[in-house]
Structures
1.
Amino acid sequence: MSLTKRVSNWFSERLGLDDLPFFKTPDYMYHVNEWLGALVAASFIYTVISGLILLLYYNAAAGYQSTETIINQVPYGSVVLYSHLYGAYAMIILAYVHMFRNYFVGAYKKPRELLWILGVLMLVLTLGASFLGYSLIGDALAVSAVDVGAGIITSIPQLSFLIPIIFGNYDTGDYTRVLALHIILVALIGLLFVFHFFLAEHYGMMPSRKVKPKAPAVYTKEEWSKFNPWWPRNFVYMSSLIFMTWGFILAIPNALAYLNGLPQYFNPFMNPKPAPPPNSPAAAHITTYPPWFFLFLYKIADFTSDVVIFLMIGVIIPLVYLIILPFIDRSDELHPLKRKVFTGIGILMITYLIQTSLWGDLAPGVEVSVKDQVIAYLIPAIIVALGLTFIKPVDAQLKPSRGISPLTSLLFMVVAMLFAGSVVELIDYPSLFTFAIAVFTGSLFFIGSKAMGKVVLSKGLPNNAVPEVKTTTETPTSTETKKKFAEVLMSILFVLVVVIVAQMWTIPPTGYASNLFGVDLGLVFLMLGEVISLYHYVVYKKPVEKEE
Amino acid sequence: MPLKIRLGNGEKGVLKTSDLYFIQKLLKTMRNPKTRFDSREFVEKGEDYFFNYVGKNVGGVDEGRRNFLKGIVIGVAAATVVGIIPGLRVLVPPVEQAAGFPKSLLVDVSGNPLKASSIPVNSPIITLYEYPLTGEPNFLLNLGDKSGNPVSISPVEVTVPQTGKTYKFPGGVGPNNSIVSYSAICQHLGCTPPYIHFYPPQYVGPSQLTAPEPDTLTAQALLAAKQANIPALIHCDCHGSTYDPYKGGAVLTGPTQRPLPAVLLEYDSSTDYLYAIGAIGVATYPEGSDGVPSQDPSKDLDTSQYGSSVGTKTQVQANTNPFSGS
């Protein structure tokens, strides 16, 4: 036996890698749909690590100055700070995707009710911790966000005792309490995560509906024991996902740092830099807005002047609904079209969340008449209700082998919105530039809708799907050529990584160029994740991974 | 035991051990009735069937290939670690050691240069700026007489009572030579504003004896001001030290034994701008230099880690009026 084999055996024996109490995973579950929780966890871990580095420098008594010091003077401080912000953004987006995916597959049903409730609580804590973290910067936006938040609380006199408890002496520039609560909430997320994680490992991921069409959807001990153990396939697949998540978190904000002079409505999403301090004259010229994940609340505040109604619509009703969901949807049906009411509510929640957030971004603080509210919120509801009434659940055997992943559909939605936005922009300011952008996003939209259309429409026309299903199940295309290709790709990526790493050593730690380090490190993480993913494909991927 | 053939003198490898093992395993599987290789289907579908068959039953990737791929993964991971190494500099805090005094333009809160002629005479509002390091406050004073007319401050010899040594204070600057600047850290035990601040003429009187903290004047301070015949003074409410702003920050009453160090100002009469260019007197921190007074304020610069250099601009802030409460 070779030395490396002996060393790895020594470790796997001591660590008990062969019989970890983790969920054993069937072959067909190595797709990102089943691993969305791992993506959330990866962004959580990244944000905690970068946050601890920032904690070494942050001074709660001089929030804005120490933020500026971190950006301008600490080596690679801006890289860490911007990616900390976008790590939190990624965590929020991925948590929503994770939640709604599990909503539509019915993962909240027996026996996973507690898992679901813990998850909803973690989402609330995440939003709370993000808001407090946003306030720590102490720029004009943070101060106005705190003002608005505190204003909402104080307008209910019985709750105003909470102001000093939450914000301490924030008004006088002392952010000690906000910092402490920020860390406490994150620690709570970590604690709940441990429970969430072990419950998830206990019940396992949601099996395919073809295998377990009804709740409780769990594998029996015998079925379960023949699946892949955690070590090594799960480990390999998971690390590829984690590194890719980190790559995006690092590369995106540090690249965005080089964009300047964006139109105002892009700022909440695409500007990682702090605004001027609140006491500076420059602060008078900026439009204040809340962090983007609270834009929907910001808009709802324009609908009504009654804070109680506002809190009911914006926070309490959706939250209570999500928490008690496992107890109101008690049927054992898992197919979304066999529980149409809940599917419809889910679709409307997503629609309203995005719609209201964008509305808050484009027209913040503009009052909305009741008539406009009805138009804006009734139309999606009618479309969803009509659509769901007429769509019938497709017979499982006629279903195309695989739908689109939630990430693909998210990407498509982003592209569609960009396209819509660029068209509006073209109508408002017709020029060659806006035309070029509209054409570009339009072609992206066209390509996307072509790809999506096949999947979406074939569900409505089951006859068309039949030949397709046959081709995929009976003559699987040779994976061997693809694997050869993957190996070549791995070698190319290795060379690329070495080149980028060599370049990283030449980037100055502070100043304008320092954010390139974050972009490069992000690319390196992305490529590392991709190489591991290709390794997983070559070594573990079987030609047929049927749902079992 | 790799398979080799001999051709003339040299040996040539044909199959590696792992390949041999793989072939053996494959043949065994092909003969096994449970997983028999269907040659008819092979003829029909060609290599696709074969590769799929191998992948399904023997685990397509042989040992050597797998090790090569593992090597690439480990290589990329190692390169990533190498890439992270320069990033570890994020853990090294930027400790700035100011090598000398910068020339800093005094600017107002909006960042525009401060006009010297716009500084109010005998202002009771505590007017401060940081120099030469952040976290080191200094008073900016436009001195006047009892009726509020600016007074020209002439150069004067200042004595350090603790050592008996003297140094030359260069006098006031500005359109009327009435603008002076002193460190706002009390030389007794290091109290900072609002405990130590400037008392304009209207607040130098018996009524301040009973004023609440931080506006209380001691009887000694009043007496010393009367004897020195000065309308205004700098007084620290912590322990009662009093300084003479008209005479280079000289000591009027104890317990301090050191005068306030002065910031050297430069006045540009063409633009009406003020620049801080250095300091004179004892070291800024009374606790610094092991408590031994220095004649050289730059003594602090190389040991101080209290802040970083203010750079070419420093902001003048006039925020607190200590007398507004009384």
2.
Amino acid sequence: MVLRDLELRHFRNLGVQTLRFPPEGVAVIGDNAQGKTNLLEAIYYLECFRSFRGARDAELTAFSEDVFHVKGVLEGERPVTVAAGFDGSGKAKKVSVDGKEAPRFSAAFGRLGAMIFAPADVDLVSGGPARRRQFLDVVLSLNRSGYVKALQSYRKALAQRNAALRTGANPQAARAWDGTLVEHGARVTCLRAEWAAAWAEPFASYCSAISGGDRAALAYRADVGTAGDGAEAGAESGGSGAGVVGVVGGGDAVGAAAATGEAGEAQVAEAYRRRLAESWPSDVRRQRTTAGPHRDDLILTVEAPGRRVPVRAFGSGGQRRTAALALRLVEAATIRQQRGTEPILLLDDAFAELDDGRSQRVVALVEEESAGQVVLTAPSESDVRLRRPSLARWRIRGGVIEA
Amino acid sequence: MSSIDSLVRELRRLPGIGSKTAYRLAFHLVKGSAEDMKRLAAALHGVADRVHPCPVCGNYCEERVCPVCADPRRDRSVICVVEEAYEVGAIERTGRFKGLFHVLGGRLSPLDGVGPEALAFDGLLSRIDGEAGEPSEVILATNASVEGEATAVYLEGLLRPLSVRVTRLARGIPVGSDLEYVDGTTIAEALAGRREMSA
């Protein structure tokens, strides 16, 4: 897809503006705190109808305004108009596609086909497992049909089961949720494992290309693939290298099963059922569900002399940023493959914390791989780096964009 | 408080009615004839005075037991379990079910404070007489939602020791719909529950 027009009304500090984007993209240049990231946030809002920075809708509304509205006109095989509005006085949010209100937000997800990369993404790598699960959930929700529904049903069953465990009066009633938990949990696990298995190789080659030779790897650690409390403790400590590698092995077994489709899903469901039975005493004791995909992780490792270590614990700053950027490039490649459309790349000061060598190699990668639209922000002309000769330059000051 | 205000306040307590709709309804009533309003009030009175849950199945009725439970022509070997009383009507309208009903009065939802003790499970169990072999089948017709499914699973666990056949409504493609527009989960269910075609 190509974003052609963007209409903004009171989104953060951007005021009321209509912008026409060149098909190739644009470099938005401006000092700090002028609204560069806000612009990318507004564009990405049309992809999944929430802030990529995790801000609440009320925080996206300009000061002294109640309502914001963002509308994008997209060109592609089939042109489409996506709009989203939020009314803070009634706390109501509306999303529409081609003027028709979407019954559920998820029905309008992913129309843009955009990937956003920002310096804060380093926490994809250095943050906790929840951050990486969220990454997987977003990527798969946008790209795999059936994932959103499975995830929502899983979360609902999990919340109900935990509530039943907390009431404590009749713990057996909590087991009524096991069936749904296993059914949807197995689907979630399999789709995640399948994605990780399919993209492990590209991830490694992106990391190698950006770093100039580092050998990194990505694996899905499925909780249902681990054997009880011992492995769990190893994963949680996350420090001792040997323990983690063992767990990765367990995850791979599930990954292999998951990749075999329907039969694999039945196998994973069976493993999950066993895990739930095993962990029942501890579930009752801790009054929450201790087994399932809500405890999974994406394990990123890099080769050190003689062994493989988690980037999260042992990687250098540069290695973490590289791994984060590689994850985002894999996300873009997923969009390209699953949706058959060239992703729109939104790069927020992407080269800020990379050394010269890495920046140049990233630029080379992006220019080689992505023929699509690029909207990038930079504090100054020299930080644009992307050498697409015709890339337009816009200036932004106090939220006002000069094309 | 004025009469209109108290009417608005009562209307607002109904599900799906916000304050704007409550005002609109109240003024619609006031604008209409006093006769109409009195008829509505009388209807409410009638319901309040005469309607009560059937002591056997939990459906609402005016007689001692509900017409379905009282009807000697109904098939006593099958009980169909539903979440809410209004779902009895949905099944009755099909004209295809001749058995008895049991209304649970909701579904398991610990998040909303609804546990097994809040639903009419005991009433259902007491209706199953293993020695007489009646009923021989219990159909679990709770909704195909996460909560409805869990309620069915829990009930199945309670019914299993009672040597009664327990069945669940089929899940799948809605009649008259295009496969193209059916979501993946439903298609997967329909595939799993496919059946032999008989000539």
3.
Amino acid sequence: MSNSMLEVKNIYKSFGENQVLKGVNFSVDKGDVIAVLGSSGSGKTTLLKCISFLEPANKGEITFDDFHKDITKVTKKEIRQLRMKMGFVFQSFNLFRNMTALENVEEGLIRARKVPAVEAEKIAFEMLDKVGMTERAYHYPDLLSGGQQQRVAIARALAINPEVILFDEPTSALDPELTGEVLEVMRQLAYDGSTMVVVTHEMEFARKVADWVVFMADGVVVEEGKPEEFFTSPKNERTIQFLRKTQSDG
Amino acid sequence: MSSRVFNILVTAFPQIGLAAIKLTIPLTVLSFIFGCSIALFLALVQVANIKGLKQFARFYIWIFRGTPLIVQLFIIFFGLPSLGIIIPAFPSAIIAFSMNLGAYTAEIFRSAIMAVSKGQWEAASMIGLTYPQTMARVIMPQAFRIAFPPLFNSLIGLTKDTSLASCITIVELFTKAQQISASVFEPFALYCEAAVFYLIICTVLTWVQSRLEKKMVWDKPKAVRAARQ
């Protein structure tokens, strides 16, 4: 048995007739940066949403540290406790529009963790500093560019000090010239030893920053491996096709 | 305009104004407050999908949107006494207006809550906020902003609807104009004067709406908080 920090086994999920996940196994070790690749519709985002319970899986098991259970039988209270260990960065940022950058970062600390306001503010400023957004602390999301919003969203995810941060295509909604600043922040987090799962289309990031690459197609993991092996000598036919296509695109 | 009519209008002005201040405005304000409370309750139980209460809310809205306000007013004031329930005119009007407004405004609130993007819910749940916290801190502040223009529409509509209270013996703005017109026989001038009063109230409300709307936009950096010690 592996001693991974977070592991899901045999995950199934369908939306109506459409079966999106068909028995996915996935595990994360502490300190890992895992890139999840695959073309649209391969189920990568759904996998992330099932792990974080934003979408209920139809079948499977979840293990997180010493918690182990059938993923369909996890109670609401347990979901809340598990989420306390996870940070989630959304494709569309999802900053609270009625709160400033600072308030966005503080909110979880004050309301969910019951951290005193003064301390929460201090932590929030530290997190904003990490993503280079202290100067915009009192700005509302509508006043920020997409890249800035995503950096604040990363600070918000970091603030609750999660064991693992799940990134759902964090740069896909950004203008090309804004992806760099977000990827740079993520690279720094990886360098600092954060555990990260990154669903992405950024091949460069997967190649250079990830410790492990997982490739999904049609709701299953088709191939996985260290990035140097994955990119230079892919074994599966689907992987080869995918890599050829993305390389010709970019 | 003859000086006789002019004098009538001038004399009537404070009388109609007093009726507006003593009855039309209190009727509007109280009905709006109660109506919005009813609406909020009806909207929240629907969004939260609470069994039983949700069906009750749909039933309530069906009844009060499906029947004319004046009929509701008559049932409460003229109809209920035959069942032994006697409610004086002013509270009757408040009850009818509030319950009617509640049905319409519930739909405004409900659609505003639904209009807040699903991502806001997801983000709130991922940082550990509970359902009530998410509602109070994230969803309602945004929903309120979305609901605000149609909410003011309701308020302006209600202001004018209070003239129906004249049918149940309440001497509000319109009834007052009616009474004076009957005694001096100048219906055109006096009903126009009543119309002007409604127009003034609604103009003020429109002005207030645009002022408040400008304040509710999150488009300027927040003033730096007083340094916490």
4.
Amino acid sequence: MSHSPSPMRAKFWTPGVVTLAFLMTAGAVAIVARYIGGIGYVTNLTNARPWGLWIGVDVASGVALAAGGFTTAFLAHILSRHYYEPVVRPALLTAMLGYTFVVIGLLVDIGRSWAIWKPLVYWNPNSVLFEVAMCVMFYLNVLYLEFVPIVVAQYKGRVSLPGPLAALNAPLEGLLKVADVITGKLMWVFIIAGVVLSCMHQSSLGSLMLIAPTKLHPLWYTPILPLLFLTSAIAVGFPMVVFETTLVTSSLKLDPEMHILSPLTRFTVFLLGLYLALKIGDMGVRGTYVYLLDGTAQTNSFLVELILGVIVPWVMLLLPRVRQSRRGLFIACALIVGGVLLNRVNVFVVGYRPPISEANYAPALPEILITVGLIAGLMFLYRFLVTYLPVLNRPKQEVSA
Amino acid sequence: MDLSRRGFFKIMGATGAGLAATGQSAAAWESRAPEEAYGCLVDLTRCIGCRKCEQACQTVNGLPQPDQSFDDLTVLDRKRRPDDKSYTVVNRYYSGKIDERDQLMPTFVKIQCMHCQDPACASACIVGALTKKENGAVHYDAGKCIGCRYCMVACPFEIPAYEYHNPLTPRVMKCTFCYERVAEEGKLPGCAQICPVEAITFGKRTDLLALGHQRIKGNPGRYIDHIYGEKEVGGTSWMYISDRPFEELGFIQVPEKPLPQLAETIQHSLFSYLWSPIVLFGMLSGVMLGFRDKGDRRANDEGDKP
């Protein structure tokens, strides 16, 4: 189990990457339209439905699905299970890019993008959103700091910019040296702070809707919503790692890392089981099971979320046969990832029912293009960074195949 | 990745301090409703649907001219909501009330920001751009707003509207309770001043409650025994009395508990003095130190060999 991350140096402009670039361009055009005509020009948001696809997917799901970053850091660096080291860097990269795009998504969504710094000056400690924003801001910086050693490893002692830029070589080299020393000494602080900040805002994202008891459907409105958000974020961390590792290793024809992914999902059996128990227990305590068969869009979406997104993959992961099969493991983990994504969309979009105007909402095309473009941008950058920085494990015998 | 022993004790000390603070943080949630709040009592039995209040609101607040004139009563044929161009609208309801010639009689309902005593929007607002003023107004400061629209999510009455078509400096638009007019010029809100039938009474909220109860008691059979806004979401500055059940007039049922209570209680009991993050940080440092070089003992038997 030698762990030697290295740059992939694979061909960059594959057909897949070209597709990503195309989707990014479409998203960028829609973003330009948003800044010319306003949010109303590109979205179907209304006074009754002020939050839609962008908050549900780009922000809430983006944060939840970046949970692989702090869960793997906890496992490998706080519990010192170094066996899992090979998935820590890719998960960290996903989290770093995930949060970066959460912030970009937020910039597009808020009406006054240029005013995003104002919560730093004008504090409202009563506001759940204020706490979420502060945590996301600090955590994003922590993620960048945690990523510094990867950059240092690649470029320290090897900075050689071409032509007139060569004058910058020495200062950059010095900067890398300082960064290396500081992050080396303080990395334990960043790692623990990352876990603490994650626990804080992952749960608080659930508290966001507690202020709207008349609007959020009772299947989701529960005082333990923050706890459900936290447990589901922790539970989706490793499945997200499996999901992306499988995609990346297939795409780049690398070792599928099954010897790491299989045991990793044994934790998921427990964590997802805990989430499932909380969710069903909550339904029992509050008696919301009475809604389950009423056939509304909300209820059906809840059933899909619970059955396909939690129960089915949980049962699948109980079976060693599934955990050892690459395909089985991927399907189970993709279901869990989809289940958490649907949960966030349900809480912020589907389950949100304005009681007076009863306004419906479906995202407009440019709205979808922006969300898709942001996800494509994330994948594009991921591909770019693993090509040039030591994130993934060196390809093994498959090279010649 | 080095955790020195001294650093560790420092953290544990901070943890202890954090724990000590938890006693205070458990304090019960308290309403921040101003005692001397002004308000308006709307008597729905008096309103004749003339829309003069809408017109006065538009003039006083410098809002854009509507497409249809304020004299045009056909706009009442459909239900409207306040939006980014009108802070208040009047809707007409036929709730089954009939006059002596068996004709259906309308009830008119003026809608605007309720100016809650413990406003959910102000609790939600990330920057505190929305605040409850001493005189009862829920006041919006566009200079702080970032446009997150969480206030619109939080408002139980679906009141705040947004300038969705302004690309860079959109504002949240809602009834201001004519804050400057009331606070600085000592005048009435535009709508209350113009109402030709005195359907809107402006005054101290406590006086208005007394007046409302007095009207209900003094005219047996005329009113429903309910002041909408007395207890709704912990009380609102705008209140209504009616001769028809409120649910037939577009009023929704809302909890009597102030909406910010649950979220604020959770937030403050968890994060006062940042005690829980500090404790968690301390605990994780302990775990990290304890597991250093020990975690991998079991690494070799991470079963499930593929």
